């Protein structure tokens, strides 16, 4: 398996473990809709939380959360709308990012950014 795939799987495991420790209920992992995917879908109280996991090695010049650009945000909003519609949910939706920096020994720094971005009204 490619090193970036290993890094992604490790990042998603670390993110899931963090969310579970915070009391989140994990509903889905790697939920796919067409060619779009949501890393983690969870419930935090009365909110549905769409979580984008970004893991990077320490030598990267950009923080992981900075890689969630406007295009990626639109994609996540669209995928979240599809999930809510398919499951006939009436629930508030929040978009979080879990940013992880991992060194060569798999030691890591993890940051959970709640309300990382908001859907734009259209």
Notes on the structure:
The chain has 122 residues and is α+β, with helices and mostly antiparallel strands. It contains two helices and five strands, in the order αβββαββ. The chain has helices spanning 3-21, 70-86; strands spanning 25-33, 36-44, 47-57, 92-102, 108-117.
The main sheet orders its strands as 1-2-3-4-5
Q: How many beta strands in the DSSP annotation? A: 5
Radius of gyration: 14 Å
Structural class: alpha+beta
Count of DSSP helices?
A: 2
What is the string of SSEs from the N terminus onward?
A: HEEEHEE
Poorly predicted segments: none
**Separation of termini?**
41 Å
The dominant shape is: globular
Please specify the SSE layout and strand pairing:
Elements: H1 3-21, E1 25-33, E2 36-44, E3 47-57, H2 70-86, E4 92-102, E5 108-117
Parallel strand pairs: 3-4
Antiparallel strand pairs: 1-2, 2-3, 4-5
Short description:
With 122 residues, the protein is α+β, with helices and mostly antiparallel strands. The chain has helices at 3-21, 70-86; strands at 25-33, 36-44, 47-57, 92-102, 108-117. Helix content is 30%, strand content 41%.
